[in-house]
Amino acid sequence: MNTLGKDGENIAAAFLKKKGFRIIEKNYRTVFGEIDIIAQDKGVIVFVEVKARSDITFGYPFEAVNPKKREKIRKVALCFMKRQKKESPARFDVLSITKDRGETRIEHIQDAFEV
Q1: 115 falls within a domain
Q2: 109 pLDDT band (50/70/90 cuts)?
Q3: Which residues constitute the domain of residue 10?
Q4: DSSP string of 15-64, one letter each residue
Q5: Overall number of domains in the chain
Q6: CATH number, domain at 73?
Q7: How many CB atoms lie within 10 A of CB 4?
Q8: pLDDT band, very low/low/confident/very high, at 58 (cuts 50, 70, 90)
Q9: Is the pLDDT of residue 72 over 80?
Q10: How many CB atoms lie within 10 A of CB 68?
Q11: pLDDT > 70: what percent of the chain?
Q12: Is 77 inside any structural domain?
């Protein structure tokens, strides 16, 4: 993972903690792929995809969460939920981080997509 990606995930985790989320796992991997952050928000399991960019020349970071990426996240999330052996409500969030000229902008998109 590149430095911007790692920094983005650390920024995202700190941001979520400040909002009261409890981080369950970071970089959860299965044969289907990876979910950047799995957290809990008031009894809801939240699967968080973090996208970070140094600028918006090639679009906003959240725009990279395309249908193919969403399908991978869905499969990984299903593996995690099966492992939990209990049912919980779940949602999919995207944290879009732009670090440009010393300024960090964070956009938290809750319920970014459905599966």
Answers
A1: no
A2: very high
A3: 3-109
A4: HHHHTT-EEEEEEEEETTEEEEEEEEETTEEEEEEEEEES-STT--GGGG
A5: 1
A6: 3.40.1350.10
A7: 13
A8: confident
A9: yes
A10: 8
A11: 98
A12: yes
